[in-house]
Design brief:
mainly beta; 147 residues; 3-stranded antiparallel beta sheet; 4-stranded antiparallel beta sheet; Neuraminidase
């Protein structure tokens, strides 16, 4: 993905992936008593509200994200790998021209390692993912493309 993107963890709903623009407003109403049944971006407020490129519905507790680079990733090359804490999963999101197209949740990275915190691409284009389980039960996972 080109430009700057953010991955935001909502209260109990509406986690978001946003493509950031100077002066844009992607946030929620900071007032106490926020109604979690409505989207975080309130388009009725004055300003420059910009809708999310992806929104979750019930929260998987999105955390860190990394764009996958390298031919060895095949159809996942250029996708956004998003770690999820509550969902204990990695979501692979495909965007085209800034618009969300689809997502995959690899079976091996769904519920097997606990809360996934941050993915970072490293040497050989491998993806390293930290967990956030606490009590000395944290790991760094190494994920490599099949090819």
């Amino acid at each position: 993905g080109s430009g700057m993107w953010s991955v935001e963890h909502g209260p109990s709903t509406n986690d978001e992936v946003n493509r950031l623009k100077r002066g844009g407003n992607y946030g929620w109403d900071p007032d106490p008593g926020y109604d979690e049944s409505v989207p975080m971006t309130d388009f009725s407020l004055p300003g420059k509200q910009i809708g999310a490129r992806w929104r979750s519905g019930p929260t998987p507790a999105t955390s860190g994200a990394e764009w996958l680079r390298g031919d060895r990733w095949g159809v996942w090359q250029g996708t956004l790998a998003v770690a999820c804490l509550e969902g204990s999963e990695l979501r692979i999101m495909k965007f085209r021209n800034g618009k969300f197209i689809r997502q995959w949740i690899p079976n091996r990275l769904q519920g097997n390692y606990g809360r996934l915190r941050t993915p970072v691409q490293g040497p050989g284009n491998a993806l390293y993912i930290t967990t956030a389980n606490g009590a000395g039960n944290d790991k760094i996972l190494k994920v490599t493309p099949r090819r």
